[in-house]
Design a protein that fits this description.
Elements: E1 2-7, E2 12-19, E3 23-31, H1 43-65, E4 74-80, H2 84-101, E5 105-109, H3 110-116, E6 128-133, E7 138-145, E8 148-153, H4 160-170, H5 177-185, H6 208-220, H7 225-228, H8 230-256, E9 261-264, H9 271-281, E10 285-286, H10 297-309
Parallel strand pairs: 1-4, 4-5, 6-9, 9-10
Antiparallel strand pairs: 1-2, 2-3, 6-7, 7-8
Helix pairs in contact: 1-2, 3-10, 4-5, 4-6, 5-8, 8-9
Bound molecules: 5'-O-[(R)-(carboxyoxy)(hydroxy)phosphoryl]adenosine (KG4) and zinc ion (ZN).
């Protein structure tokens, strides 16, 4: 079975062809540059960029896989969560192509896609806990079986990736903030300053306090201090951001008795995060290949393939779900 996967949920137009055993045959992805000047994603610009890029990238992914339209067994696209206009482009394209080719269309939840990113390069059997750490979500999910999830914890305010992006903005860095902060933090001392780690009674995440504390900390300093100590300040920020993730995951493990934990989503590409989780959980922690941590078409194709192999398909009348939770 061969499936084309499309993700247009945010500022990346991503396509991939995936085959049996979740083998990635090809990928074609473009990240939109036009948002950089605005310090964040501009929804209307994202939708326009998807319209411009998607047809070319789909053709490129077929060409790279060495196949044509008629070799496909299905087409999957992200229905949500994401930006409404951006999602619409991918879904309308996928449904139109599926209709014309008389192929099944499979609508995919982007967050489930992140969980399936694990299977693109390794085998992993449930039960396990999955921490989805991305720009829009910080969810701890119990994966009881593939396709069967129960959410244990969500963020009460900001997502961890969003916190990276906002802190980067405070420092006058570009968007997205995560890669820049990771680069600056390497070689910095994570114990330079102790940023707060919230400890709540109920299982949950909160990142708005860390953002505010970071803002006040930088505002309090003498001119030049922040610039001189940037690696240490970024490393200390990362330490607090990831400490919270580790602590909530530990509590989730104790609560459920589930031993294995996987960390997925854009933030899981971060090496300091991976090292902290490995120190804490050793052989029980799993990550996607770094290139499949951030948004990609292959994870959407994989989640679509899982459904297609079980005879599931979506109705052609299905719309987009910008606020779809797992
Ligand atoms: O999963 P993703 O690509 O898109 C969403 O579904 O949101 O995640 C994007 C988020 C952004 O907030 C970005 O700043 C963060 O992932 N990110 C990182 C790193 N690379 C991307 N955060 C920390 N360290 C990184 N190296
Ligand atoms: Zn994502």
């Amino acid at each position: 079975m061969l499936i084309l996967g499309i993700d247009t949920s945010c500022d990346e137009t991503a396509c991939a062809v995936v085959g049996e055993g979740f083998r990635v045959l090809s990928e074609a992805t473009r990240t939109h540059d036009e948002h950089k000047a605005f310090g964040g994603v501009v929804p209307e610009l994202a939708a326009r960029a998807h319209i411009r890029l998607l047809p070319r990238l789909v053709l490129l992914s077929l060409e790279r896989a060495g196949i044509s339209w008629k070799d496909l067994d299905g087409i999957a696209a992200t229905l949500g969560p994401g930006l409404p206009g951006a999602l619409m482009v991918g879904v309308v394209f996928a449904k139109t192509a599926a209709q014309a080719l008389k192929l099944p269309f499979v609508g995919v939840n982007h967050l489930e896609g992140h969980i399936f990113s694990l299977l693109l390069t390794q085998k992993l059997d449930p039960p396990f806990l999955a921490l989805i750490a991305s720009g829009g979500h910080t969810d701890l999910v119990q994966v009881k079986a593939w396709g069967q999830y129960s959410v244990l914890a969500r963020t009460r305010d900001d997502a961890v990736g969003e916190c990276f992006d906002k802190v980067a903005r405070i420092l006058g860095l570009g968007y997205p903030g995560g890669p820049e902060i990771e680069r600056l933090a390497s070689g910095g001392n994570p114990d330079f300053h102790e940023f707060p780690v919230p400890r709540m009674e109920e299982l949950g995440f909160s990142y708005s306090g860390l953002k505010t504390s970071f803002l006040y900390y930088t505002m309090r300093q003498e001119p030049g201090f922040v610039a001189e100590n940037l690696p240490h300040i970024c490393a200390s920020f990362q330490e607090a951001a990831f400490r919270q993730l580790v602590e909530v995951c530990s509590r989730g493990i104790k609560l459920t008795g589930v031993k294995n934990i996987a960390v997925v989503g854009g933030v899981s590409v971060n090496r300091a995060l991976r090292e902290m989780f490995l120190r804490e959980f050793g052989e029980s922690v799993f990550f996607p290949e770094p290139r499949y941590s951030t948004d990609n078409g292959a994870m959407i194709a994989a989640a679509g393939l899982f459904r297609l192999e079980r005879g599931l398909r979506s109705s052609m009348s299905v719309g987009v779900y910008p606020n779809w939770e797992l």
